[in-house]
Structure formats: structure tokens, C-alpha cells
Design a protein that fits this description.
Blueprint: E1 3-5, E2 16-23, E3 42-48, E4 54-60, H1 80-83, E5 94-99, H2 104-109, E6 125-128, E7 131-139, E8 142-155, E9 164-178, E10 181-183, E11 189-199, E12 204-217, E13 221-223, E14 228-237, H3 247-255, E15 258-265, E16 271-272, E17 278-285, E18 289-291, E19 306-315, E20 322-336, E21 341-355
Antiparallel strand pairs: 1-2, 2-3, 3-4, 5-7, 6-8, 7-8, 8-9, 9-10, 9-19, 11-17, 11-18, 11-20, 12-13, 12-16, 12-18, 12-19, 14-15, 14-17, 20-21
Length: about 350
Amino acid sequence: MNSIVGDLTDATGNFKVLLFEIFNDTQNDNLLINHDLNGKPHLKLYLLDSNNNILIFEMDVPETLNTLEAKSFAEVEDNKKEMFWFSGLAEPLSVKEIPTSETSIAEVSGNTNTSISPTALNEFSTWTNPTTYYTSFYVGSDYTQCYSLPYLSYKHVNVSSSDSTWIAQFKIAEHTKVGNYTYYGNNVFEYKNVKIAFGSGDYSTMIRTFQQGRVYDTTSGLKKTGDNISANLIKKTISKVPYGSTINDVIGYINTATSVVGDVRLGSTGVNLSGSPVSAAGEKLTSKYKLEECTDHSGQTDNGHYFTYHVVLNYEGNGSSKSTTGNLQLKFDVWNAETYTTTPISKDFSLSYTAKP
């Protein structure tokens, strides 16, 4: 539809502009007070004053604006100023967490090709969050429902003298329903401060890392392959390669690792880990990045948001093989933009493997 939404501020500071929309179309629209304008071009201006009163103006489009065409303006990916202008104002009808089942990813994302492997050694395994986040609310005649399910695909291999790569991919299955319409990528649930880190066991050292993804920078827009992003770069060095380590030791490597903020490139050839044997490495996205759009949707793959982290390991031992255990740590915050609440999530995965020359 021919709709143009502006990102406006009140120069006097008296009002917050919740919505400014020029609706140059004859389709039906969700009008709150002036229903006589339905099916006609109109302008909406919704303001919030300092006493939390909402001032609603719905009127004919002024003559000076009635020739504007939406196709003449740039599309903004994060268009919450349109779909969710009422965030924090509309009382949710329901806020709940729906228990996750084996079919949840397909149901929430609409992608029926999703498969789950039983093991992460040499093939991908999938962990899903125990619950799907859900909220619903009415704004005027529109009944809006938001579903969002974060999940992780990961794989590790036995560590040898040649490059051995472990990989973890943070993904999202989500959609928003407004009446009979389904949207991807505009959801009240967002994921921030995503951290992925690996710890290695006996006779293993990490030599290089790299990352891929599509994430949204709240200061400048979408970041994708070829773009630089800032992250907390996590690394733990030890005096010698371990022998006889336990899973608690490996988790300890991750939890006691140091980090520095640096820039890395999505889809780059890698960052070398120099120095003593490295027993843990990872990245935590800085707070300006968020992920919310369904990773795979509308018949495509990786066209939404995701973050992938790889670490390359080498064998470093006395020439003998050793069965050992590594660890994968995932942390992220769930932000509900409708209720202004944050839920931290943390999960550790044990990775059994063999280190061999």
C-alpha cells in the first residue's frame, strides 16, 4: 500500500511523536477515531505529552502531500515506528512462554525444511530455547500476535594436526501476525548481547577464529558479509596444553577468559590467536547490535538475522590420542519491546571428542 511513515521529533520538546503516517491509498486501514476516512487517503499524527496523554489526529491528507509515493522513499528495515508505535503503551492481552516441541522451529518460522540431528560430533545438532516467546494485543481493530524462538545449530569434530573447525550458529524462528497477514522481521522480541564461546580439552589448542552473519546495528542499520562489526573478543591463554582436564576446568577457561573490544569483519578469512596455547575463545556482540528477524523465511535461507562463530583447533600433544571434552557456551538477552523487560539466557554444551595426531 502507498504509505509513508516519517521519523519525526518535536523541536519544542513538548511531545513525543508516536506515529506520523501519510496514507495515500484507498485500501482499508486501522483508524482509531475517524472511521469515515477508511478507504480514503488520510494522515495520522499521534503524540504523547509529558502526562502520558495520547493526542490522536486523523485527517484528510493536506494538498501539499497528496502526490507523495512510497516508492520514492527508502525502505527502513527496522520499522517499529510503524508497526509498533504503541510499544509500552498498549496493554498486552497475553504475555507467555509456549513450551517448545520438535516442530516448533518449523511452525514459528514457516520453514518446513528444518531438521534436527541427534549429535554434534561431525554433524550439526540443534538446541532450541525451552519456550517460544509470545505476546498479543489489540490496537484499534488490529489483533497482533508475536512469536519468537531463538535456537542454536552447532557442530564439532575430532581435533587433529590439520585444521579442525568447530562452529556455532545463533538463529531465530519468528513471525508477527496482524489479522490475516504474517510479517517477518518486525517483532517485539529482540536478542542482544549475544555471546558464543568455545573451550577446548586435552591436547588441543585454538589457532584462529572467524565469524559470519546478518545483524542489525541500531546506530547505522543492517550489517552483513563484508561489513565490520565491533565485539568483545574473548581469549584464554594457558602455560601449557592441558592433560587430564575436566569439563569444569574447560568451563572455567571460558569464564576466566579476558576480553577486549575490537572490530572484526563478517565473512572474513579469520583472526589469528597468537601467544601461548589458547584454551578458550569467543565473541560477544556489543550492545548496539540486535537480532530479531527470522533467519530463514519466505522460501529463502539466511535472509534474516543470524550470527555464526567458528574456531579452528590443532592437536598439540605427546603423539598419543586422548578422549576428552570441550565446551560451547551461549549467552544472550531477550528484550521485549512491548513490556520493556529483559530476560538473560545462558546455556553450556559439553562436546566429547578425540584429540589425535
